[in-house]
Each structure stands twice: as structure tokens, then as C-alpha cells.
């Protein structure tokens, strides 16, 4: 009898206390949707089969393949028109979706020297070391894009 009374006094303390549910939920704000672009990813290959390029391509490779299927060019491959000599005050603006782009200058007038490649940024104009023509990117992308992260 003494053992049962001792056991009864210990049992309530040994059981874990269950907290009562909160009166309101912890997440009281409305859910927000992410504004990220969808991932350009194919369905992948089926089991036991070798996947095609279109099925397994991702990212820029898939972007190019989808444009080729439409009969379009994914990227502009046309040479940049340089109707004048760009100056530091009035540089030749180069369209770019990134903050930096590599430009190939052939001189002014066109083809006056061999092609010289150099990086051009959006912050300040960069001059060609051969002819002095100034270039700057016309940045049209997302300002704080984190690349592939």
C-alpha cells in the first residue's frame, strides 16, 4: 500500500506536460510569393532510355534550344553599329543584361584596326587602347541578381 501511494505521487511529475494550443497561429502574416523566374529545366530522360539534348538541357543551353525550335536567335550575334567615335562624355552604349560585358572594338571608322576585346562596365566608360573609342554598357538586367545562386 505504501508503494502504491509513493508511485501515485511520482507518476504525475514524470509525465510530460502538454501545453495548451495557442489562441492564434504563429504565422499571422499573409504568405508571400517569390518573384523568381521559373527554372529552365527539361523533364529529364525516362528510365532505360538515353535522353535527348532537349530533355536533359538546363539553363542557357535549354534557352538556346527552345529558341532554335521556334526558328529564332536566342542572342544577338549582329555586330554593334558604331556610327561615330565614342567619347568619355558621350560613349557608345552597349546593351547588356549583366553589369559587365566584353566588347570587341574594330576601330573607327570600322575595320581600321584588328579586333581588340576588353571588358566594359555600367559605371564609367572604357576607352579602346588602339583608337580611343569609348564604350559603356546600357544595363537592362536585374540590379541585384545573384547570378546562379
From TrEMBL:
SUPFAM superfamilies tied to this protein: Rubredoxin-like
Residues annotated as transmembrane: none
InterPro entries assigned to the protein according to its UniProt record, in alphabetical order: Cyt_c_oxidase_su5b (IPR002124), Cyt_c_oxidase_su5b_sf (IPR036972), Znf_C2H2_type (IPR013087)
Boundaries of every C2H2-type domain copy: 128-149
GO cellular component: mitochondrial envelope; respiratory chain complex IV
PROSITE patterns, A to Z: COX5B_2, ZINC_FINGER_C2H2_1
Binding site for Zn(2+): 105, 113, 128, 131
Pfam families hit by this protein: COX5B
Domain of life of the native organism: Eukaryota
Keywords noted in UniProt: Metal-binding, Zinc
Recorded GO MF terms: metal ion binding
CDD domains in the cross-refs: Cyt_c_Oxidase_Vb
GO process terms (BP): mitochondrial electron transport, cytochrome c to oxygen
Name of the protein this chain belongs to: Cytochrome c oxidase subunit VB-domain-containing protein
Source organism of this protein record: Rhodotorula diobovata
Taxonomic lineage: Eukaryota, Fungi, Dikarya, Basidiomycota, Pucciniomycotina
Amino acid at each position: 500500500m505504501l508503494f502504491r501511494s509513493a508511485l501515485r505521487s511520482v507518476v504525475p511529475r514524470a509525465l510530460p506536460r502538454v501545453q495548451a494550443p495557442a489562441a492564434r497561429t504563429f504565422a499571422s502574416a499573409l504568405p508571400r510569393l517569390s518573384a523568381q523566374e521559373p527554372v529552365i529545366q527539361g523533364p529529364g530522360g525516362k528510365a532505360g532510355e538515353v535522353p535527348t539534348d532537349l530533355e536533359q538541357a538546363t539553363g542557357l543551353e535549354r534557352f538556346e534550344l527552345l529558341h532554335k525550335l521556334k526558328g529564332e536567335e536566342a542572342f544577338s550575334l549582329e555586330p554593334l553599329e558604331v556610327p561615330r567615335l565614342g567619347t568619355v562624355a558621350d560613349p557608345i552604349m552597349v546593351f547588356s543584361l549583366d553589369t559587365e560585358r566584353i566588347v570587341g572594338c574594330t576601330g573607327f571608322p570600322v575595320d581600321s584596326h584588328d579586333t581588340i576585346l576588353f571588358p566594359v562596365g555600367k559605371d564609367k566608360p572604357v576607352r579602346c587602347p588602339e583608337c580611343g573609342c569609348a564604350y559603356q554598357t546600357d544595363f537592362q538586367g536585374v540590379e541585384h541578381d545573384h547570378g546562379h545562386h
